[in-house]
Design goal:
Blueprint lengths: L1 H6 L1 H18 L15 E7 L5 H16 L5 E9 L3 E8 L5 H15 L5 H6 L2 E5 L3 E8 L7 H17 L4 E6 L5 E7 L1 H6 L4 H11 L7 E2 L12 E2 L9 H5 L2 E4 L5 E3 H4 E7 L5 E4 L2 E2 L1 E7 L5 H16 L7 E7 L1 H30 L2 H24 L6 H31 L4 H26 L1 H4 L3 H36 L9 H26 L1 H21 L12 E7 L6 H16 L4 E11 L4 E13 L2 H4 L7 H12 L6 E5 L13 E7 L5 H15 L5 E6 L5 E8 L1 H6 L4 H13 L1 E8 L2 E9 L14 E3 L5 E3 L4 E8 L2 E5 L2 E10 L5 H15 L4 E6 H32 L4 H6 L2 H14 L6 H30 L4 H31 L6 H38 L11
Parallel strand pairs: 7-25
Antiparallel strand pairs: 1-3, 1-4, 2-3, 2-29, 5-15, 5-16, 6-15, 7-12, 8-9, 10-11, 13-14, 13-18, 17-19, 17-20, 18-19, 21-30, 21-31, 22-30, 23-28, 24-25, 26-27, 29-30
Helix pairs in contact: 2-13, 2-17, 3-4, 6-11, 12-13, 12-14, 12-31, 13-14, 13-17, 14-15, 14-17, 14-31, 15-17, 15-27, 15-30, 17-27, 18-31, 18-32, 19-29, 19-32, 23-26, 27-30, 29-30, 29-32, 30-31, 30-32, 31-32
Length: 1041
């Protein structure tokens, strides 16, 4: 094949141009993001039982729904939270890659089946099933600088004028407002006025229901009509009310003497908010942020640009005194990270070109392998688009590492052609053809081996497979194009550009070549000595094997290293029973502390909202501290996240009024709410909430003693103070009062009661009944509530019920149907996430009773799952390499020589990780898999050439020494091109540097060790294996006569 392209260089050039054009055309269509869409699909089921406490929600709403949803196809795990605000939230997590639309439909069908078991009010309010997008991409926020607009106005301005526009932007999956104040018609009742007028809560409920409804009044003259009907008129009447005044005029009771009791006589009506249980601040001032969630295949950067452009357009219509800004924007990290990777790519290309130039001595010879770089990298983009990949951290890493790989084959071709020109007095076309006969086999073999390594990776399921696949296939595509290039364009360019320039060289190159010649002669002598002293080599190799095994056991494992993503999260929890107002004061204190912290630019705070379970609670708050750009923080260590978090946590430890923790965001968006791990402590026996809390606190106390763990806390508490209302049913019935009247009174006055809807601003809003705030502030206010008996007498509720103080749980969590206590934490400095997981499991084995157990979720679940898959990937990768080589060499023994170079690469990679204090995480593991192919590649160059020399009649020892001597230059050239190509990864800084350090260090150390050590080990093992193969079979002994 190469001979054809050598004779037709324009054809070869056209083929390369076509590859480049296809890649360039594909580039604009590739999505851009931090990671590929690997977060598990989730479906969220939400329901509201207004006025119910957490236990009532758990029993009547959450449990029936969970029992029906459990086991839906594709489900991995299910968690839920039942809250004192009457909400039930069930999150169903599916396998990575499962169709989210199908998942949502399946869950919806099961919810419909369970609806007959739910309270009528829950069914009336509606049970929603939503597809949860992975994570917030960016969050614009609106505010009023001069304070002329309150949060009620701003919230509904966003709902009416902005949210629908945002949802129509391509790539937007969901839009969620924080601190939302949706309009509602609030009817605030005065229980004492109602009692004096003989009006009950049921009376008001019925009046609003009857007098605020949609009325279809019909028409006059509508067909069928009398003969000769001339006109037809549509009729209308006042149905649904719209204003507070109209609701105030609703007649509750009309007496026979003409007296009328209206709602305005017994209460107050206002256009208020549906909920008042959350607040939002930006930099200490009231504001309303709304999060933009992107669809899985959307381009994050294009989405952010489109949102910014649309917000700028919409802001032109804002009323005076209303402004917006975008503070939280995850694409800033993506942009900065991609910029750093591209910078690294540029340095890698420059270093690779330098190495090639030093070894090949000329611009012409350097140009040939350098041309390969853009052809392969740009061409790979077309392959990425074809398989549905995106431009992300993994694919960009693949391209950075591919820089040192794609030139390898071209270097082998150029070096061999140049050597033929120097050593033989032949014409350049003949030299190119001769060279290709020698190197075509090794090029195909090494390329197949490199691609074969990644075959098992392509079929790995789950998040781990998604991460491996993006990187591995990017490398495989680049290597495939490189192999094609080296068999077509490279020999053609050699025939066109190279010429025999004789022995005349630049003094620098002459000095370099003389030094290399001395190195080569010394190397040849050492190889000869080692072949004779093969026992020493085998012994040292066994030591290296033991050292590799030791490092595999001792280098801590992990999932994804924590990154400085440009922001961090602060979680606040005040003592149980604390009001939202009190929590807000503590939150404001934390806001001030954060704003005074060097490196922090902005602070977004949500009062009454827990990020960990996405539920409202008056004693919780969540804050996002947005850091200044990375370039502004590089110069000062105190402004780096690794310094900010421990410094702040030390300050927060002295806050007596609350428990405060500053934590990293999740390393992979969508896996969990924060970084670190989440451990679900489960109660299998159905014990009391108090027992679950007691075991949880004992567990945390014991786990906190472990040096591997830090920041352990739980959002679960069974000590929330409250009161239990005991209804004396005998007394209720004996006094002629309906039990339903008692329960309705409690729910209307104290819990808030959703009656029906009204229309305003082209939207549908809800109507709520509730007692005035002064009438539901103290336990003694119960005495102000009255109910009516069958005789029409007003009976005080305090005579029918008693209040008993109790403690209970504000939020009750389930995990896979069992009650659970979620425990969050992270690894301590100097320890890996896997060590933290093992420490938690060790404590669980010692502390937990038999009636309780645990499960992992989020990051930890995926890490454990990844760890279980990794050994199989390694074994399969080695097997694929072995099978490819066996097929190539038509031998079962020769491939062992190549495979034996792999442990040396593992030794270097893990040793480098250990020296830098890095863990064996996903990125390191990707590097290890890649090193299987890279280590084999160097060995193949020696083995292939030795086999050729052996076929030419040399002895085994002579063939091995000759192959080692001749292949030393291309091996060192390709190895140093790769090693220097990844060096920028090792020493990079800025956004995303943790991942670059882990991957770069592993492949740098592994390739360095594999190159240096395999140069001496491979020739020795080749000789040993060939001696075994060549040993004549022992003749069979004749049997005794």
């Amino acid at each position: 094949m190469s001979a054809f392209f050598i004779s037709r260089p324009i054809f070869a050039t056209v083929l390369a141009i076509v590859i480049v054009v296809l890649g360039a055309v594909s580039m604009p269509f590739l999505p851009i993001g931090q990671y590929p869409p690997i977060a598990p699909p989730t479906v969220v089921v939400s329901a509201t039982f207004t006025g119910a406490n957490a236990r009532a929600v758990e029993d009547s709403v959450t449990t029936p729904l969970e029992e029906q949803i459990n086991g839906v196809e594709g489900m991995v795990y299910m968690s839920s939270v039942s809250s004192d605000d009457g909400t039930s939230t069930i999150t169903v997590t599916f396998e990575t890659g499962y169709d989210l639309d199908i998942a949502a439909v399946d869950v919806q069908n099961n919810v419909e089946i369970a609806s007959s078991q739910l309270p009528d009010e829950v069914v009336q309010a509606g049970v929603t099933v939503t597809k949860q997008s992975s994570d917030i991409t960016l969050a614009p926020n609106l505010y009023s600088p001069d304070g002329r607009y309150d949060t009620l106005f701003i919230s509904n301005y966003i709902t009416i004028h902005i949210l629908d526009v945002m949802k129509r932007i391509p790539g937007v999956g969901e839009v969620q407002m924080f601190g939302e104040r949706t309009f509602a018609m609030r009817i605030w009742l005065d229980p004492q006025k109602m009692a004096s007028l003989g009006v009950t809560a049921e009376d008001v409920t019925k009046a609003v229901s009857d007098q605020n409804q949609v009325v279809a009044a019909g028409a006059l003259g509508q067909q069928p009509a009398p003969e000769g009907q001339v006109f037809q008129f549509t009729l209308s009447t006042l149905g649904r009310l719209q204003t507070a005044e109209e609701f105030g005029d609703i007649i509750v009771r009309a007496e026979s003497d003409g007296r009328i009791v209206r709602i305005s006589d017994i209460g107050r009506v206002e256009l208020g908010a549906e909920l008042y249980d959350e607040t939002a601040n930006v930099d200490g001032q009231p504001a309303l942020p709304f999060g933009i969630f992107q669809l899985p295949d959307a381009n994050a950067i294009d989405l952010a640009d489109e949102v910014e452009a649309k917000m700028a357009q919409l802001s032109e219509r804002f009323p005076e005194g209303l402004e917006y800004e975008i503070i939280y924007d995850t694409t800033r990290f993506i942009r900065a990270s991609i910029k750093e990777v591209l910078t690294t790519l540029g340095f890698a290309i420059a270093l690779v070109v330098f190495v090639i130039f030093m070894f090949l001595h000329g611009l012409r010879t350097t140009l040939i392998p350098v041309v390969t770089i853009p052809v392969c990298l740009i061409g790979t983009l077309a392959a990425l688009l074809a398989v549905g990949f995106s431009i992300n951290t993994l694919t960009l890493f693949g391209m950075v590492l591919a820089v040192g790989l794609v030139v390898d084959d071209a270097i082998v071709v150029v070096e061999n052609v140049a050597r033929n020109l120097e050593s033989k007095a032949i014409e350049v076309h003949e030299a190119a053809n001769e060279a290709m006969k020698q190197v075509t086999g090794p090029i195909i073999a090494t390329s197949l081996v490199l691609m074969a390594v990644f075959v098992p990776v392509a079929f790995t399921p789950g998040i781990t497979g998604g991460l491996y696949k993006q990187f591995a296939l990017t490398i495989a595509f680049a290597v495939a194009i490189s192999a094609l290039n080296s068999l077509t364009l490279s020999p053609a360019l050699c025939a066109v550009l190279l010429k025999n320039e004789g022995t005349k060289k630049h003094p620098l190159f002459a000095w370099f070549d003389n030094g290399f010649a001395r190195l080569n002669r010394g190397y040849e002598r050492i190889v000869g000595f080692l072949i004779k002293s093969w026992v020493l080599v085998v012994g040292l190799f066994l030591v290296a094997l033991l050292a590799t095994g030791y490092l595999f056991k001792t280098v801590p494992t992990g999932f994804v290293p924590p990154e400085d993503q440009g922001y961090f999260i602060v979680l606040l929890q005040t003592p149980e029973g604390t009001s939202l107002q009190r929590t807000q004061k503590v939150m404001e204190k934390i806001e001030k502390t954060l704003m005074e912290t060097p490196g922090v630019g902005h602070v977004i705070a949500f009062g009454g909202f827990s990020l960990l379970n996405s539920n409202s609670a008056p004693n919780t708050a969540s804050l996002f501290a947005i850091l200044k750009p990375w370039d502004e923080r590089k110069a000062a260590d105190e402004q780096l996240l690794t310094h900010i978090l421990p410094t702040l946590n030390a300050k927060f430890a002295s806050f007596a009024e609350a428990e405060v923790d500053a934590v990293n965001p999740p390393s992979i968006p969508g896996l969990s709410a924060t970084g670190g791990f989440q451990f679900e402590l489960q109660d299998y026996a159905g014990g009391t909430l108090t027992e679950l809390e007691s075991v949880t606190q004992a567990f945390i106390a014991e786990a906190s003693k472990r040096p591997e763990l830090q920041g352990l806390f739980t959002t679960f508490s069974a000590r929330t103070p409250g009161y239990r209302i005991d209804v004396d049913r005998n007394k209720v019935l004996s006094q002629g009062v309906s039990l339903n009247e008692v329960f309705t009174a409690l729910q209307v006055y104290l819990g808030g009661y959703y009656v029906n809807d009204f229309n305003k601003f082209g939207r549908v809003y809800r109507v709520y009944l509730q007692a005035e705030k002064d009438a539901r502030a103290l336990t003694t206010d119960i005495s102000k509530i009255y109910v009516r008996n069958v005789k029409g007498d007003m009976i005080p509720l305090s005579g029918l019920v008693t209040l008993n103080a109790e403690v209970s749980a504000r939020n009750i969590s389930h995990y896979n149907l069992f009650r659970s206590a979620p425990i969050n934490g992270s690894q301590a400095p100097g320890y890996s996430s896997n060590q933290a997981i093992q420490a938690m499991e060790a404590v669980a084995a010692d502390v937990l009773p038999k009636t309780m157990g645990y499960e992992w979720t989020g990051n930890a679940y995926q890490e454990i799952k990844a760890g279980n898959v990794l050994p199989y990937i390694f074994v399969l990768a080695l097997l694929m390499v072995f099978l490819c080589l066996a097929a190539q060499y038509e031998s079962w023994s020769t491939p062992f020589v190549v495979i034996l170079a792999v442990p040396l690469a593992m030794l270097g990679a893990l040793g480098a990780q250990a020296l830098r204090g890095l863990s064996n995480d996903i990125y390191c593991q990707i590097g290890l898999i890649m090193l299987i192919g890279l280590a084999s590649k160097n060995a193949i160059l020696i083995v292939e050439f030795a086999r050729r020399r052996r076929a030419e009649g040399l002895s085994i020892e002579e063939a091995a020494i000759e192959a080692a001597r001749i292949r030393l230059r291309p091996i060192l050239m390709t190895a140093f091109a790769f090693i220097l190509g990844v060096t920028p990864l090792v020493f990079s800084s800025g956004a995303g540097s943790s991942a670059r350090h882990s991957l770069g260090t592993a492949v740098f150390g592994g390739m360095f060790a594999a190159t240096i050590l395999s140069l001496f080990v491979v020739p020795v093992f080749y000789v040993l294996v060939e001696r075994l193969r060549s040993r004549p079979a022992r003749p069979s002994q004749p049997s005794a006569a």
